[in-house]
């Protein structure tokens, strides 16, 4: 399979999360790649949830290896959906996060089929990972007994020399402030919901400090963090705002709990402000001495010609759903930068190396059976 060409084809679909028309086109494109093969391909289209495509070489609920990924992307300008390759880098929306590595997974599927490797192998690609992975949750609810010894996760992009051992628990919290409207010239006649919100956020900042590239950066980055993603309050300038809401993106390490977060929230709410846990999950924590991880690391180091180190990642990953089912999750991706930004790119050579590492690892697993 021409991995880079397939990646380019995937990037051209404007599959922003929620754009079901484009997402369906991507799913159909992927399904056609395996027409005429022995692959079993199903697209799970739930009326209320985003589609998930499931490709495998056998019908089972107990896999040796699953590769997880997603084909949805965050919003971008039109020109970012036309991939451009320059100086060994491929630019465009989804190049790093993570259509290039979806192409790697599809390549691995084709290889397993063509070589008839004696392993139970599958690929699961979701289409709403950027907004909570509710489609994946619905898919796994339909497959409650599905498990896999190993899950390969390439959705941790940025540095091919690092294997990720931990990912945080993403918790999205909605803050709601209710005030009392009044004329803007007489603030004492009302209660400003915007002020209540700002005071509440200020209270939270005492527990979850503000960090920024041009401000302060923590020495230890494996900490709980809070990002205020959205604030909306007020309609016109001369009216005291009576309603404000904010959405906070809070990332918890394995040392913190949602119950502990709720206790902190309770302490920080000003009168008139309430909160709602919109969604929460679980952190992914792997043992650096896991034999599967060490074997993978050995292959990767041989192919790359250099040592790999372990690191922790603040982002979330769909593989958390399998981590809680007992899977060894191997998180490794290629070189790139600009994830979710205008200059997103991936180094094409690193994509091909990840593909090579993945295939060699699968070959070794098959030879041990």
What can you see in these coordinates?
Helix 5 packs across helix 6. 30% of the residues lie in helices and 26% in strands. The protein is elongated, with a radius of gyration of 22 Å. The chain is an alpha+beta fold and 369 residues long. The strands form 4 sheets. The protein has a 6-stranded mixed β-sheet with strand order 1-2-6-3-7-15, with helices on both faces. Strands 4-5-17-16 form a 4-stranded antiparallel β-sheet. The chain starts with a helix and ends with a helix.
List the helices and strands and how they pair.
Blueprint: H1 3-12, H2 20-33, E1 40-44, E2 52-56, E3 62-70, E4 84-86, E5 89-91, H3 99-115, E6 121-126, H4 134-142, E7 147-153, E8 162-167, E9 169-178, H5 193-205, E10 225-233, E11 243-252, H6 258-268, E12 273-279, E13 284-285, H7 291-304, E14 309-313, H8 320-323, E15 328-331, E16 336-337, E17 345-347, H9 348-367
Parallel strand pairs: 3-6, 3-7, 7-15, 8-14
Antiparallel strand pairs: 1-2, 2-6, 4-5, 5-17, 8-13, 9-11, 9-12, 10-11, 16-17
Q: If you compute it from the alpha carbons, what radius of gyration comes out, rounded to the nearest whole angstrom?
A: 22 Å
Mean pLDDT: 95
What overall form do the CA principal axes indicate?
Answer: elongated
Share of residues in strands: 25-35%
Counted beta strands: 17
Task: Indicate the structural class.
Answer: alpha+beta
Strand order of the largest sheet: 1-2-6-3-7-15
Q: Residue share in helices?
A: 25-40%
């Amino acid at each position: 399979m021409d991995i880079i060409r397939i990646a380019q084809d995937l990037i051209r679909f404007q599959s922003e999360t929620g754009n079901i028309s484009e997402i369906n086109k991507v799913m159909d494109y992927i399904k056609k790649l395996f027409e005429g093969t022995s692959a079993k391909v199903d697209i799970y289209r739930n009326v209320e949830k985003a589609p998930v495509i499931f490709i495998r070489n056998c019908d089972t609920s107990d896999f040796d290896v699953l590769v997880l990924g997603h084909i949805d992307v965050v919003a971008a300008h039109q020109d970012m959906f036309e991939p451009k390759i320059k100086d060994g880098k491929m630019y465009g929306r989804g190049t790093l996060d993570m259509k290039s590595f979806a192409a790697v997974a599809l390549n691995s599927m084709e290889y397993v089929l063509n070589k008839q490797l004696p392993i139970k192998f599958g690929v699961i690609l979701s289409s709403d990972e950027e907004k909570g992975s509710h489609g994946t949750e619905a898919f796994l609810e339909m497959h409650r007994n599905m498990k896999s010894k190993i899950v390969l996760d390439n959705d941790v992009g940025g540095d091919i020399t690092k294997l990720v051992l931990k990912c945080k628990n993403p918790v999205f919290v909605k803050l709601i402030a209710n005030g009392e409207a009044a004329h803007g010239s007489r603030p004492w006649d009302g209660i400003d919901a915007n002020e209540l919100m700002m005071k509440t956020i200020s209270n939270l900042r005492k527990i979850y400090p503000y960090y920024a590239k041009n401000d302060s950066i923590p020495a230890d980055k494996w900490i709980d963090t809070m990002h205020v993603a959205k604030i909306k309050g007020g309609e016109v300038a001369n009216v005291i705002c009576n309603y404000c809401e904010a959405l906070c993106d809070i990332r918890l390490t394995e040392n913190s709990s949602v119950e502990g977060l709720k206790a902190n929230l309770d302490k920080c709410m000003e009168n008139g402000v309430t909160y709602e846990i919109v969604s929460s999950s679980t952190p992914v924590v792997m043992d650096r001495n896991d034999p599967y991880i060490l074997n993978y690391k050995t292959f990767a180091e041989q192919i790359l010609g250099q040592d790999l180190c372990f690191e922790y990642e603040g982002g979330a990953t769909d593989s958390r759903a399998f981590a809680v089912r007992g899977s060894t999750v191997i998180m490794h991706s290629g070189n790139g930068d600009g994830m979710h930004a205008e200059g997103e790119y991936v180094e094409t050579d690193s994509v091909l190396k990840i593909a090579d590492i993945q295939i060699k690892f699968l070959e070794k697993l098959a030879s041990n059976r």
